[in-house]
Design goal:
This protein has 20 helices and 21 strands. The chain has 562 residues and is of the alpha+beta class. It is globular and about 60 Å long.
């Protein structure tokens, strides 16, 4: 298929599905792929159309997003997959980045003082990438199509180019004028000799195409060994980074048992640590299960208060206990997701008065909102919820010279240093301090929900620490308030994370009267911009069709299905 023909096909499918008026959900029967990149969604659904399953489609989609959505789509980052088969088997794949062998808990200190730039904006902030290994492990376990066939569409897309969208052009223009100026390879990759691309221009990435071709030909070895590994190590050595070829060769993705719980008769399947998402979502749901949210009404001040108080407690538990399970063996997971413990926490909530958070207890590290999510269901009703990231938008902003891909800055998700907890937002508790080979704590919350043994819902979003609460609210919107998938995605969102002690909310998502009531309850409230970009798929229980909710907050998103 020619590039032009492909783009026409993509446009037809996306337009027919995604651009419906009002809050009508996207409907499809033979499969559905929803992402922040319309082109990548079509590539993923083409795999399903050709007889592949949801895991096959996830591989092709995720690699295509490394080409079309460079702000978060990646081969230089990491993430998580939650998978549920049509038969009900559930598992997860952890491909979170790992700390290089040269890491230590005090690596962000210079002459005994914390250095934020070193922690978040340097070559030392780059963790060993996990995306290629994770996608390959998921494919090796459940895939059905040849690996090379799943990678080749991204190779062609990078080599032959695609038409620059307005959203991507505007995003890259900002970076070309600011952060990319520090890194010649980044400027060369994403500009025309320093001049920003304009919408409608053909955007080719030949170095990235060659890197993807090595992955197509050799699997993970095409990334973690050989030429690509040498290019990464060279860039690290030249700029004070820590990653070596030995670190890359030693990286391993892991299959882990999911976090499982229930909410009002629905089975909730989430990601275990080093993601905090599965535990935190389940803990909040367990607390809220004791209230009649439906009777209070969607968006009511009473519900927002109860949600904020539940979020406050879950985030406090997150900071105190959760980390990489391969390093911290004492996490009280069973207690945190139990109904009994939720009942104890519920007793501490005053139904008409806000609690107060104290910075003398615990607080949080910085976590960027620039992540991306993929929701996929195939014709057989196998489901994938995949969230992956470079951490900040465009990660470290560092393109590997000759490799054509961006590196992450995920080491910034480790705690700042031992004993550095303060009221400004640093944290120095032990569980999430940097150590060689350790995976940093994450808020990514890919989630799948079943009902009576059948697939019911797939949800997930970018958004840093807001991820947990955005996913939570799509679940509440569907289960408690009876919203369809698109309504659940479009509805206003709010967030509380223990510290700072405030509710942030989408400015046009709730009425001034509601906000005034929250203030009277003692909450500090802060209006903000868009929260997240959740991609939701719900199986309509009446006819079995898939109904999708495409989050239209960011540009360039799209759905593909039939």
């Amino acid at each position: 298929m020619t590039r032009r023909a492909f783009l026409v096909l993509a446009t037809v499918v996306i337009s027919s599905l995604a651009l419906q008026a009002g809050n009508a959900p996207i409907r499809a029967k033979q499969g559905l792929v929803i992402t922040q990149s319309g082109i990548a969604s079509e590539i993923g659904f083409q795999v399903i159309r050709d007889g592949g399953n949801a895991v096959d489609a996830a591989v092709a989609t995720a690699l295509a997003m490394a080409v079309t959505h460079p702000t978060a789509g990646n081969i230089g980052g990491g993430g998580f997959i939650v998978y549920r088969s049509a038969a009900g088997e559930a598992t997860t794949f952890d491909f979170r980045e790992m700390a290089p062998a040269g890491s230590n808990p005090e690596m962000w200190l210079v002459n005994g003082k914390y250095d934020s730039q070193l922690h978040h904006n340097s070559h030392r902030a780059v963790g060993v990438p996990g995306t290629v290994a994770g996608l390959h492990l998921a494919w090796k376990t459940y895939g059905s199509k040849p690996w090379k066939d799943l990678v080749e569409p991204s190779v062609k897309l990078a080599r032959d180019g695609f038409e620059m969208s307005d959203g991507l052009a505007r995003s890259l223009a900002r970076m070309v004028e600011t952060a990319f100026t520090k890194y010649p390879a980044s400027l060369a990759q994403f500009s025309k000799n320093g001049t920003p691309y304009e919408a409608g221009e053909l955007f080719k990435q030949p170095d990235l195409a060659r890197s993807l071709q090595r992955i197509a030909d050799h699997g993970p070895a095409g990334f973690y060994e050989g030429e690509t590994a040498a290019l990464i190590e060279k860039e690290m050595k030249a700029n004070g980074g820590l990653i070596t070829r030995e670190d890359l060769k030693n990286y391993q993705a892991k299959q882990r048992a999911p976090i499982k719980g229930t909410y009002r008769g629905y089975e909730i399947i989430g990601m275990p640590p080093p993601s905090s998402g599965g535990i935190s979502v389940q803990l909040i749901l367990n607390i809220l299960e004791g209230y009649d949210l439906k009777a209070n009404g969607a968006g009511s001040a009473q519900n927002l208060h109860l949600m904020a108080e539940s979020m406050r407690r879950a985030f406090a538990e997150r900071a105190q206990h959760l980390a990489d399970p391969d390093f911290v063996k004492t996490m009280p997971v069973d207690r945190l997701i139990s109904k009994d413990y939720a009942a104890q926490l519920r007793k501490t909530i005053n139904p008409s008065q806000a609690s107060k958070s104290s910075p003398t207890t615990f607080t949080f590290t910085t976590e960027s909102p620039e992540t991306t999510h993929i929701s996929i269901v195939d014709a057989q009703r196998n489901a994938v919820s995949l969230t992956y990231t470079l951490e900040a938008g465009y990660g470290s902003k560092i393109v590997v010279p000759g490799g054509g891909f961006l590196l992450n800055n995920e080491m910034g998700d480790f705690n700042a240093g031992p004993g550095l907890t303060n009221e400004n937002g640093l944290i120095g508790t032990d569980p999430n301090l940097a150590q060689p080979g350790k995976r940093m704590l994450s808020s990514m919350s890919p989630t799948i929900i079943a009902k009576d043994g059948k697939l019911f819902m797939v949800t997930g979003t970018p958004g840093g620490r807001t991820i947990i609460n955005t996913v939570l609210q799509t679940i509440l919107n569907v289960i408690d308030f009876g919203m369809n998938a698109q309504e659940a995605v479009d509805y206003g969102r709010m967030h509380h994370q223990w510290l700072p002690d405030r509710i942030s909310y989408e400015e046009h998502g709730f009425s001034p009267d509601t906000i005034a009531i929250l203030k009277k309850m003692g909450h500090t409230v802060q209006p903000g911009g868009n929260q997240g970009a959740d991609q939701v798929i719900v199986v309509n229980p009446e006819d079995g069709w898939l109904e999708g909710g495409l989050d239209r907050r960011p540009p360039d998103g799209g759905a593909a299905g039939k």
